[in-house]
Structure formats: structure tokens, C-alpha cells
Amino acid sequence: MRILWFSVTPSLFNPFSNSHNGGGWIASLEQIVRKNSAIELGVAFYWRDDNGVYENEGVKYYTLPNDNRNIVKKFIKPENANERIDRYLKVINDFKPDVIHIFGSENDFGLICGKTDIPVVIHMQGSLPPYHNALFPVGMNKLDFLFGRGLTWRRRLIGWRSEGAFLRKAGREIEILRNCRYFMGRTAWDNNIVRLFNPSAVYFHCEEALRDSFINGDRAWKYRERGKMLIVSVISNPWYKGVDLILKTAKLLKENACLEFGWSVYGVNDIRFFENKYGIKARDVNVDIKGSVGKEVLVDALCDASCYVHTSYIDNSPNSLCEAQYLGVPVLSTYVGGIPSLVKDGKTGILFPANDPYTLASHIITMNRNREFCERLSNAAREVAISRHNPEYIGTTLFNIYREISRCKNLQ
Fold first, then answer.
1. pTM of the prediction?
2. What pLDDT, on a 0 to 100 scale, did the predictor assign at position 72?
3. What domains appear along the chain, each with residue ranges and CATH number?
4. Closest CA to 362 of 231, 281, 249
């Protein structure tokens, strides 16, 4: 069976090139698929200014040239979508797949739906319509990017344009969702998004692959007495990831709780904009910005932590939360998007309302005082996560999805 991926990352072509904190889940999924001799895999992705075809370990890689113009030129003259679709169709014609697997409904790969007779399945990741709805934290708007301090000119321009850009791309995504027949996902939230815009779609459930450093090692979280509570969060740059919630919660803990703590934040390098916007300096409230690090460093940090806190205002199934659960780290997370499919409140973690630093601070204090509760959350979450992210189970499920889609095409 010939399967062609359109990927938002270069996967195993160069697994560390543009990944977040040391490798991505699509590369992990490719490692699983490579073990199935019944699958011939092709992977197409945008890569610098290269337009070529490469082969490695039985996988055929198609590099699509990036639009390397500066952000001003891209704004003045956006690239023609039809030109990009033509590139995708040329790859399809060369590889001649039985099934096309697209990662993400939010990118423009899905515009090929209806332009090829080969069945296309879209693997849900995020979704821009609800992301646009939660784009800015409370108290923020696009004017902050004109007058706020602590931003580079590039980030300032991205922030100013983000609301309009999200809205335009959300409209494109709705078109893609309506035009595609097959989808796969892993949460009730992404299933509901598909059903909302395309009630007749066929939806397959497939869990997410995790990075090898988390599932192949022998490290796991264990409760131990510490001199102070160590909190870990792994986030990225977008405004909706909750940097502001970290600062607000840490301030509440510092000023009101008899609690020694440190809060390590991985994945962002500069939060001066948020510090200036909310008048809270990270160093004054025991928050330490660690930047992007390798996956092995994250494993060590999570196993040494007292708990993991996820602060996003919107998310589907964040890798970082799943990885923390796999290691058995007690997790606290906002009750948003697909996260309730991953965390059962009071059983495999703690859920709290978005933009509620008061409830989060209270939960952190409670967790610090209750060893038995932490261990119960840890054991339950780890048991579920090990089953949920089992590579053999994921590989079998994915192959069966491909086979079912291919069979339906042959019956038409």
C-alpha cells in the first residue's frame, strides 16, 4: 500500500530541524510506520528553498520550496494558492499513492480535496476557528502590539496581523473541512469540529505517537520530599498558550501562600511583552524561563518536578501534557478543547477553568500538601497514557484506517 503524507514538519528527513523542544510527534509516527513492510511511504513538506526528491531507508521525501520572501513582501503580495496546489498535485502524480494523509486541517494542503481521485484523510491537529476565538488573553487586543514594550519588530507585526490572519485562514479551514470526506483524530473536541462543519464525514480515531525519549527510557516520576515545590510548564510562543496565566498564578502564590516554589517554563525564550503588559516580572515571582531544550532535558525536568501545569486557552491534545502523563507526573490543566479527553478530573489529573489563576493557585497548594493524592493521580495517568500511546497499537490502528479508506475507494 502506497501512502503519501503531506506534513507540516520534515519528519525523519531532518527530525530536529524545526521541531519544538527536540523532535516532533510526526517523526515518531514515521518511526512506527517504517516498521510496517506493507506500507510504502512518501512524505512531502516545505523545506527552505529546495524543490527535490530524496530517498532514505525506503521512504521517499519530496521537499517543497518555502516562500522565503520577507514578511513585508509576503504581506504586499501573498503567494497564489493555486500555485501551491499545483505543486501538491505534481507530487501526487509522481508518487501515485493509494491514500493521501494530510497532517492538519489548518494548513492549505487540504485544498487538494476534490482535485484528485485519490482518497484524502486529514489528521486533525489544532483548528483555527476556535483558536481565533481564544487568540488573545483577557485584557489583550491588537493595539497592544503597537504600543506594548518587549517585542521585536517582527513579533510586533505578527501580533498586529494575527487576528486578521487567523480569521482568513479559519475561513479556508472551514472550506477544507467541508470538502474532505475522511478525517482522523483523537479527542471528542476534534471530532465535534469535524461534525459541525461536515456532518457526513467519516471520522477515525487514532491516538498520537510520543517521542522515543519519553516512551523508551526507564525513567518515571516518583513522589519525593523536596525543599521546595518544583512546577514545570512546556508551552510555545502564541499568545493563547497562557504565559500570562503562569505569571498571574505565580504572583498569587508568592504573595498569599506559605509555599516555597520554583516554576520552570520551557519552550519560550522571551516573555518581556507579557511582563510589561501585566506588570509582573518573572524573576520576582519565582518563574524561570528556560527556552527550548532537547527532549532528554525535558524528561529529566519532568521527572524531577512536583507537578506539570498546562495553561493554554485552547488546545487539542498537547504533546507536552501527554508526555508528562506518560512519565507519571501529576498534571493540572485548563479545561479547554480536547484536553478533557486526555485528563479525567480528579482521576488522571486536575482540570481548572481557563484564565482562573485563583483556582489554579489553590490546586497547586492542595497538591503540595497531599502525597497520597499526587501518587494516585500519577499511577492512574501513567497507566492510561502507556496504553493510549502504545506504538504497536497506534501502528495497527493507522494501517487499518489506511486499508479501510483504500477499500472504500475500490468499492466506488
1. 0.91
2. 54
3. 2-209+390-411 (3.40.50.2000), 214-388 (3.40.50.2000)
4. 249
